[in-house]
Automatic annotation (TrEMBL):
Family label: Belongs to the glycogen phosphorylase family.
Function: Allosteric enzyme that catalyzes the rate-limiting step in glycogen catabolism, the phosphorolytic cleavage of glycogen to produce glucose-1-phosphate, and plays a central role in maintaining cellular and organismal glucose homeostasis.
Record-given protein name: Alpha-1,4 glucan phosphorylase
Cofactor(s) listed in the protein's UniProt record: pyridoxal 5'-phosphate
Keywords linked to the UniProt accession: Carbohydrate metabolism, Glycosyltransferase, Pyridoxal phosphate, Transferase
EC number of the protein: 2.4.1.1
């Protein structure tokens, strides 16, 4: 490899120790070295944040060793790789996760304590990387952890947004958004690769030209920007494998701009160049609707184009024939957001590699797989044809050609069923013509995955029924999962130690199926005692956070009842709040004796509303208004408290979830594609109060009906209930609590009017009224179980014991075997 520089290379290798050492002295030297030379602070004066930075750099050095070894190993073995394309990755903090996966947490903690530092305190200094909205983005992060741990040859691709998801600040109970300039404090977890750049083209025109007597298309772009790679190593647990998450940042292009410098004003030209950077500047905070914004489309193509160029470069390094492409490349589309990759690969094969349409299309059909994360037709992405044609003229042509061929084939198969042809076409006709990205993705992928069994059923019978009838073999599902490394080992160290003690091994951290072994001790008194202690420790941590944040003191004897997730009408945070008002009203109307029987509750709600989502924002305000009233009512005391936790993100979740006794998952059945928050709660021994929706159905199968508080209409009943609509009777209790809001019990009655109107009369689309009694019954059942402590703890143990199926390790293994057809490629130690 080194060729003429062999002698030099040997000398260099001789100068380096084989690997960095992990004994306390080496670690301490290393940390102090980084204090002085990387952070550039004096060894005698640095604060906790600077200590964190030095610590992070020492960890990074060790991470890089393994990352290099893995990349070299992959290069040597040249296995088929999966390229995971996602516009969002919600990584949260990295330090603890990385040292745990590298297996050097205790060594670092010891080394630090000898220096007078507490590892946990320094870890708290790290800010979250919030390059995503919600479940979809956190799922990508969990799946990267599993891909690395299971030794799969995988590469993640995404965008390096300068501004992550907005920070939620609450002022007078209202949500305000503030920018998250997360890179302000530096990012030790990324490696800037200034030499790995690709030009990305936009706008311009397409002309027909002749090349060697063949007609071909030439795209003359009107704008060019440069994509620069930032690599984020992702370490596996219990393996040397450390895979790469490559995020692209936009920089002005040097080649293209020379013209303007020669012709125009120098200062103007420089200022104009800065505009290029705006492509990767901001994450769109909306997790439901597509607004047809040009910048968003530019982001999608920017990251797709850079990733595809990178994939082709890697392939061409070692391969000549494109027919081998599908043996080496699997492209996974995380929702439709990266689906321009289909047109882009097609374009490169046709226009740059000069393959025939037939050969190129054959390759396309073998490499793409698509996972959708939505249930509703409105959730499917559409791009106005005008927008696409202007920004990416050649891609629009290719999409039209794909569609033309598809529709011709379809006619042969189903005849001239005009309605069906119209529904299945990639192009939606109408006042504004749109490209249906979901149809494009389904047509061009060999596999379409749902994220839970119910979701898959809905895809087959509703959303993609026409396609399912045509190609039943394409449709699969992989029930989502979450990584136990982050959601138990990192976030709940006491539970982690307890599980390892009772199972007699730490092997469950890689092999989640072992967790089921806890079932054997579900009634063991000694385990019960220890289990209780662990929950208490975590409740204390959460209570301290609540007090520090809001000044509210909460009782540790109360049931900690949590609902944390993005705010959405279908997730029904409003149902929770109405239930709380009902509880409050009941307590107010009780006599002293009855009050003694009330099970005390601390209700905790958290989550962000999309900035333009008015109703969701009103829910947040209502929560605060109700909390204000209840928490200051002396009649109520510790019997009921309501807390809104602001700025819910990954690191807040790591603290909230282990401290929860009960968690709520209230989506109207048939609306939550999967739900992954519930899995994190389950793993932490938190009981679920939930509708039969998304993955919950499968969770109930694992842990048994008796161990979940299920309520509400089932998915098939929801359809019937909606049809009944106006004739539906709502319970008096429901009307009463809504009336309390309308009457100004909590103030702001004018502001809340539209919220109340949304759930009364014929407009209660998400069926809060219809499910209300059933919800109250489930809540009463939870109260009853909670006072029977032994029963509660048993249910809690059985919840954690039964959570194994919901590890992303299982999900990823299923993808590898049934969708991507890839094998593990383990880096030797
Ligand atoms: C983000 C951007 C856009 Cl443009 C649209 C949607 C989103 C987004 O964040 N979606 C999302 O989080 N979907 C969720 O995916 C989870 C993982 O599969 C599911 O568990 C959850 O049910 C689903 O709502």
């Amino acid at each position: 490899d080194f060729g003429e520089r062999k002698g030099q290379a040997e000398r260099m290798l001789g100068l380096m120790d084989v690997f960095l050492k992990n004994d306390p002295i080496s670690l301490q030297k290393d940390i102090l070295h980084h204090v002085e030379y990387t952070v550039a602070r004096s060894r005698f004066s640095f604060d906790d944040f600077e200590a964190y930075q030095a610590l992070a750099h020492s960890v990074r050095d060790r991470l890089i060793e393994r990352w290099h070894d893995t990349l070299i190993h992959f290069k040597k073995e040249d296995p088929k790789r999966v390229y995971f394309l996602s516009l969002e990755f919600l990584m949260g903090r990295s330090l603890s996760n990385i040292v745990i996966n590298l297996g050097i947490r205790d060594q670092f903690a010891d080394a630090l304590s000898q220096l007078g530092f507490d590892f946990e305190v320094l870890a708290e200094q790290e800010g979250d990387a919030c390059l995503g909205n919600g479940g979809l983005a956190r799922l990508s992060a969990c799946q990267m952890d599993s891909l690395a741990t299971l030794d799969y040859p995988a590469v993640g691709y995404g965008l390096r947004y300068q501004y992550g998801l907005f920070r939620q600040v609450i002022v007078d109970g209202f949500q305000h958004e503030q920018p998250d300039y997360w890179l302000n404090f530096g990012n030790p977890w990324e490696i800037e690769r200034i030499h790995i750049t690709y030009p990305v083209k936009f706008y311009g025109t397409v002309t027909d030209e002749f090349l060697n007597g063949e007609k071909c298309k030439v795209w003359v772009p009107g704008e060019m920007v440069e994509a620069v790679a930032y690599d984020n190593p992702i370490p596996g647990y219990g393996t040397r494998n450390t895979i790469n998450l490559r995020l692209w940042a936009a920089k002005p292009s040097d080649q293209h701009d020379m013209e303007s410098f020669n012709t125009g004003d120098y200062v103007d030209a420089v200022v104009n160049r800065q505009r290029a950077e705006s492509i990767s500047s901001i994450l769109y905070p909306d997790d439901r609707s597509y607004q047809g914004k040009e910048l968003r489309l530019k982001q999608q193509y920017f990251f797709v184009s850079a990733s595809v160029q990178d994939i082709f470069r890697r392939f061409k390094d070692t391969h000549k024939k494109f027919d081998e492409f599908p043996e080496k490349v699997a492209l996974q589309l995380n929702d439709t957001h990266p689906s321009l990759a289909i047109a882009e690969v097609m374009r490169v094969l046709l226009d740059e590699e000069h393959l025939s349409w037939h050969r190129a299309w054959d390759i396309i059909c073998k490499i793409f797989s698509f996972t959708t994360h939505t249930v509703s037709p409105e959730g499917l992405e559409k791009i106005p044809v005008d927008l696409l044609g202007n920004l990416l003229p050649r891609h629009l042509q290719i999409i039209y050609d794909i569609n033309f061929n598809f529709v011709e084939e379809l006619k042969k198969m189903i005849g001239l069923d005009y309605d069906r042809l119209t529904r299945m076409s990639i192009v939606e006709e109408g006042a504004v013509k749109n490209i249906r990205m979901a149809n494009l993705s389904v047509i061009c992928s060999h596999t379409v995955n749902g994220v839970s069994r119910l979701h898959s059923e809905l895809l087959r019978t509703k959303l993609f029924k026409d396609f399912y009838d045509l190609w039943p073999h394409k449709f699969q599902y992989k029930t989502n999962g979450v990584t136990q490394r982050r959601w138990i080992v990192v976030s709940n160290p006491s539970l982690c130690a307890l599980i390892s003690k009772w199972l007699g091994t730490e092997a469950w951290i890689r092999d989640i199926d072992l967790l089921i072994g806890l079932r054997d001790y579900a009634t063991n008194a000694e385990l019960h005692q220890e289990w209780k202690m662990v929950k208490k420790v975590n409740k204390i941590r959460l209570a301290e956070y609540i007090e520090a944040m809001s000044g509210l003191k909460v009782s540790l004897d109360a049931m900690f009842d949590v609902q944390t997730k993005r705010i959405h009408e279908y997730k029904r945070q409003l149902l929770n709040i109405l239930g709380i008002i009902h509880r409050y009203d009941c307590i107010k109307n009780m006599d002293k004796n009855d009050r003694k029987k009330v099970v005390p509750r601390v209700c905790i709600i958290g989550g962000k509303a999309a900035p333009g989502y008015e109703i969701a924002k009103k829910v947040i305000k209502l929560c605060h208004a109700v909390a204000e009233k209840i928490n200051n009512d002396n009649d109520i005391g510790d019997l009921l408290k309501l807390v809104f936790i602001p700025d819910y993100n990954v690191s807040v979740a790591e603290m909230v979830i282990p401290g929860a006794d009960l968690s709520q998952h209230l989506s109207t059945a048939g609306h939550e594609a999967s739900g992954t928050g519930s899995m994190k709660f389950l793993m932490n021994g938190c009981l679920l109060l939930a509708t039969a929706d998304g993955s919950t159905i499968e969770m109930v199968e694992e842990i048994g009906q008796d161990n979940v508080f299920l309520f509400g209409a089932k998915a098939h009943e929801v359809v019937a209930l909606r049809k009944k609509g106006p004739t539906l009777k709502v319970p008096l209790q429901f009307s009463r609590v809504v009336r309390m809001i309308r009457d100004g019990h909590f103030g702001f009655e004018d502001y809340f009017k539209s919220l109340c109107d949304k759930i009364e009369g014929t407009s209660d689309y998400f069926l809060l009224g219809a499910d209300f009694m059933s919800y109250l019954e489930a809540q009463a059942a939870a109260d009853k179980a909670f006072v029977d402590e032994e029963r509660w703890i048993k249910m809690s143990i059985l919840s954690a014991a039964g959570s194994g199926r919901f590890s992303s390790d299982r999900t990823i293994q299923e993808y590898a075997e049934n969708t991507w057809d890839i094998q593990p490629c383990r880096c030797p130690f």
